C-alpha cells in the first residue's frame, strides 16, 4: 500500500496566553519516515496530538492527501497510532488487541483472523495471540502496539516516543525492527522522539522544534553538517560553540577573534542574520585532532590541559581546557596502538579551516 | 540495649497488638450484643438474657409490618443504587476525564452530601418534596437517598478511572472506536469493579438510612430502620433485636461481597 501525503499549514495552538505551537508549516511526502524532535515542551506532542485529533488546534489546516481533517473526530481519521506507554488494553488478549481496530470497522471474522495472524507474523509474535499483554516483555508489548496500529493499513502512522520505556540495547534492536516494519507496510510515518540518535537512525527527514516552533527541517546529515543555529548544532550531537567577537570581516577567510587571544580560521561564508544577530563558530568534536607536543603555528592550532577523559563504545572523549573561558570537547576513534592521554597532560589541538562552521546564535 | 529499653520494647510488642484488639472489639461488639438479645426468653430487651428462645423470630413473622418494611427497604434501596450508579459514574467521568476548569471544586461539591448531617438534608428536602407532591411516596425517598448514596459511587468510580491511563481511551479512538464504543469496550470493563462496589455501597447506605426516611416516608413506604425506630418508642420487645440481627447478617453479607470484589480487583491490578 502507499502512504498518505501530509501537509500542515499555519497550524497553531494557544492555551490562554501560552503559545504551545507557533504557526507551523510542514510537508511530509508519501511513504516518508519523518521525525519530530525537540526538548520537552517544544511543541512536538501538541503537533502530533493535533494530527491525531486529541488536541483541537486554535487555527490552521491539516491536510491528509489533500483533505482537511481538523474537524474530523479522531476515530474517523483512519490514522494508526503507537503510544509511549503502549496503551494496550489490559483486559484483552494479544489477538483481541490487534483485532480491535478491525472489529470497530465491522470486518468479517475470517478477514480479522487472517489479518491478525499476518500482523503477528510480521512482528514475530506467532503463537502469542492468546496471551494477555501483561504476560509480555516491554519489547513484545511494543510490537503488539505496532501491530494494532498498522493492522487496518492506515496510510498515516503516528508514533509518540514508542521506545521511550525500553532499555538501550532493546531500543536499538527495536529501531531496526521499526525501520524494517516501515519498509514492509509503506505507510507514511510521523515519529516523535527526544532522542536525536534514534531520529537520525530511523528518519528520512527530521524537524527540530524548540519553544513551540519548527527551527529546521532536513535530512539527518544535512542538519548535522549545516545547522541553522546554535540550538540545532548543540541539540543534534555535540558541538564546540564559540562566540565570535566583532562584526563580519570584510574579507572572507579572515581569522576570527573568540577572546583570550584565540583566533579561528574558516573557509565558511559569514551567515545572513536578521538585524545583525550574533554569530557563533561551531566545531564538531570529531573534527578536532588531538596530538602530543606543542601547537602547530597558525590558526586553529591550540594548546590545552586535559581535564577529563572518557572511553565509551570505541570512542575516546576528552575535555580540554584551553584557558579560563575556553573549553573544548574532542572525540575520536583511538587506533589500537594509540595510548590514552592522561588527565593533566598538555596536548595540542588542531582542525581544518573547513571544519569551522559559522552559524547564527539564534 | 539497656535492660529498661529491652523491657519497654517487649512491653510495646505486647501492648500494641493488645490495644489494636481492644479498639476492634470496641468497634464491633456493640453490633454483636443484639444477637444474644434476640434469642432471649424475656418479654423485654435484657442483656445478658437469662434464658433462650426463638419466639421473637416467630413474633416478627406474625407482625405483617416487618415484611412490609423489608420489601419497602428493597423497593427504595435498589432504585437508589441504580440511580446512584448512573449519576455517580457520569459525574466521575466528567471530573476525571473531562477537562473541567473547576474539577476540584466540582469534586468537593459531589462528595459534600455524604459529609453533611442527614438531618440538614432531610429538613431541606421536606418542603421541596411536599411542594412536588412526592412526600411519603417511593420516588421522594429514592431521590433523597440518591443524594447521600451517589457520592460513594462517584468516589469508587473516580478511583477506578485514576487507576489507568487515559491513553487507553485515546488508543481506542485512533483504532476507530467512537465515544460510545470506546466506553463500552474499554472504559466500562476497566471501571466495572468500581461501579459494582459503588452500587453495593449505595444500596447499603439506603438500607441503613434513618433520618431521611423519618422525614420523607409515610406509613405505606416506611423502611426497616424507620419501623425499628417506631417500635423502639412504642414497645421495646426483643422482636427489634431479632430484626436487627437479620439486618446485621444481611449487611455483613454485603460487606463480605464488597471485600471479595475489591480483593479480586487488587489481584487483577497486580497482574497487569
Q: What this model shows, in words?
A:
The complex is a heterodimer of chains A (362) and B (272). With 362 residues, chain A is α+β, with helices and mostly antiparallel strands. Chain A has two domains: 6-225, Rossmann fold, CATH 3.40.50.300; 238-360, OB fold (Dihydrolipoamide Acetyltransferase, E2P) (Beta Barrel), CATH 2.40.50.100. Chain A contains eight helices and 20 strands. Chain A has helices at 44-52, 94-104, 109-122, 138-150, 168-185, 196-202, 220-225, 230-235; strands at residues 6-15, 18-28, 33-37, 59-64, 67-68, 79-82, 156-160, 188-193, 205-210, 213-218, 240-243, 256-257, 263-264, 279-283, 289-292, 301-312, 315-323, 326-332, 346-350, 357-360. In chain A, the strands form five sheets. A six-stranded mixed β-sheet of chain A has the order 6-7-8-3-9-10, sandwiched between helices. Chain A has a five-stranded antiparallel β-sheet with strand order 15-19-16-17-18, with no helix packed on it. A four-stranded antiparallel β-sheet of chain A has the order 2-1-4-5, covered by helices on one side. In chain A, strand 17 and strand 18 (326-332) form a beta hairpin. In chain A, helix 3 crosses helix 4 (138-150). Chain B has 272 residues and is an all-alpha fold. Chain B has one domain: MetI-like (MetI-like fold, Orthogonal Bundle). Chain B contains eleven helices and no strands. The mean pLDDT of chain B is 90. Classes of the chains: A alpha+beta (362), B mainly alpha (272). Chains A and B meet through strand 6 and helix 2 of A and helix 7 and helix 8 of B.
Amino acid at each position: 500500500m502507499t502512504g498518505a501525503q501530509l501537509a500542515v499549514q499555519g497550524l497553531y495552538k494557544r492555551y490562554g496566553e501560552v503559545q504551545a505551537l507557533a504557526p507551523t508549516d510542514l510537508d511530509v511526502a508519501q511513504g516518508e519516515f519523518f521525525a519530530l524532535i525537540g526538548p520537552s515542551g517544544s511543541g512536538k506532542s501538541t503537533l502530533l496530538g493535533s494530527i491525531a485529533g486529541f488536541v483541537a488546534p486554535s487555527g490552521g489546516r491539516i491536510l491528509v492527501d489533500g483533505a482537511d481533517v481538523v474537524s474530523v473526530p479522531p476515530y474517523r481519521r483512519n490514522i494508526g497510532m503507537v503510544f509511549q506507554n503502549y496503551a494496550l488494553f489490559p483486559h484483552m488478549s494479544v489477538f483481541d488487541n490487534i483485532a480491535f481496530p478491525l472489529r470497530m470497522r465491522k470486518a468479517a471474522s475470517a478477514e480479522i483472523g487472517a489479518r491478525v495472524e499476518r500482523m503477528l507474523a510480521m512482528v514475530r509474535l506467532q503463537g502469542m495471540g492468546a496471551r494477555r499483554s501483561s504476560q509480555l516483555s516491554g519489547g513484545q508489548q511494543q510490537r503488539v502496539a505496532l501491530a494494532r496500529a498498522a493492522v487496518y493499513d492506515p496510510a498515516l502512522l503516528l508514533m509518540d516516543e514508542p521506545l521511550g520505556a525500553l532499555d538501550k540495547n532493546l531500543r536499538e534492536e527495536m529501531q531496526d525492527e521499526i525501520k524494517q516494519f516501515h519498509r514492509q507496510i509503506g505507510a507514511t510515518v510521523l515519529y516523535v522522539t527526544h532522542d536525536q540518535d534514534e531520529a537520525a537512525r530511523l528518519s528520512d527527514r527530521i524537524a527540530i522544534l524548540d519553544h513551540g516552533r519548527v527551527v529546521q527541517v532536513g535530512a539527518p546529515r544535512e542538519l548535522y553538517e549545516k545547522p541553522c543555529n546554535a540550538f540545532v548544532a548543540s541539540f543534534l550531537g555535540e558541538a564546540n560553540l564559540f562566540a565570535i567577537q566583532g562584526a563580519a570581516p570584510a574579507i572572507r577567510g579572515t581569522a576570527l577573534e573568540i577572546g583570550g587571544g584565540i583566533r579561528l580560521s574558516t573557509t565558511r561564508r559569514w551567515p545572513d542574520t536578521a538585524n545583525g544577530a550574533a554569530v557563533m563558530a561551531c566545531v564538531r568534536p570529531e573534527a578536532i585532532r588531538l596530538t602530543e607536543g606543542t601547537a602547530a603555528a597558525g590558526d586553529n592550532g591550540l594548546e590545552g590541559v586535559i581535564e577529563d577523559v572518557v572511553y565509551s563504545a570505541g570512542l575516546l572523549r576528552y575535555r580540554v581546557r584551553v584557558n579560563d573561558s575556553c573549553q573544548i570537547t574532542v572525540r575520536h576513534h583511538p587506533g589500537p596502538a594509540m595510548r590514552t592521554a592522561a588527565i593533566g597532560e598538555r596536548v595540542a589541538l588542531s582542525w581544518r579551516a573547513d571544519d569551522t562552521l559559522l552559524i547564527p546564535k539564534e | 540495649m539497656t535492660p529498661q529499653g529491652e523491657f519497654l520494647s517487649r512491653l510495646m510488642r505486647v501492648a500494641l497488638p493488645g490495644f489494636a484488639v481492644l479498639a476492634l472489639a470496641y468497634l464491633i461488639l456493640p453490633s454483636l450484643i443484639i444477637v444474644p438479645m434476640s434469642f432471649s426468653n424475656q418479654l423485654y430487651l435484657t442483656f445478658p438474657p437469662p434464658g433462650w428462645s426463638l419466639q421473637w423470630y416467630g413474633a416478627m413473622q406474625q407482625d405483617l409490618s416487618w415484611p412490609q418494611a423489608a420489601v419497602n427497604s428493597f423497593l427504595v434501596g435498589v432504585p437508589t443504587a441504580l440511580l446512584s450508579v448512573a449519576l455517580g459514574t457520569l459525574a466521575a467521568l466528567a471530573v476525571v476525564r473531562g477537562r473541567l476548569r473547576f474539577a476540584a471544586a466540582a469534586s468537593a461539591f459531589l462528595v459534600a452530601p455524604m459529609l453533611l448531617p442527614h438531618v440538614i438534608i432531610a429538613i431541606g428536602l421536606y418542603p421541596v418534596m411536599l411542594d412536588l407532591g412526592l412526600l411519603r411516596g417511593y420516588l421522594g425517598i429514592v431521590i433523597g437517598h440518591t443524594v447521600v448514596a451517589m457520592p460513594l459511587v462517584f468516589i469508587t468510580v473516580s478511583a477506578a478511572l485514576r487507576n489507568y491511563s487515559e491513553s487507553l481511551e485515546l488508543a481506542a479512538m485512533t483504532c476507530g472506536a467512537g465515544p460510545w464504543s470506546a466506553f463500552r469496550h474499554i472504559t466500562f470493563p476497566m471501571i466495572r469493579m468500581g461501579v459494582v462496589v459503588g452500587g453495593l455501597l449505595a444500596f447499603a447506605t439506603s438500607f441503613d438510612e434513618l433520618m431521611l426516611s423519618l422525614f420523607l416516608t409515610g406509613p405505606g413506604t416506611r423502611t426497616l430502620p424507620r419501623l425499628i425506630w417506631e417500635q423502639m418508642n412504642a414497645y421495646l420487645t426483643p422482636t427489634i433485636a431479632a430484626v436487627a440481627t437479620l439486618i446485621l447478617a444481611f449487611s455483613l453479607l454485603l460487606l463480605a461481597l464488597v471485600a471479595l470484589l475489591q480483593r479480586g480487583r487488587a489481584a487483577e491490578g497486580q497482574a497487569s
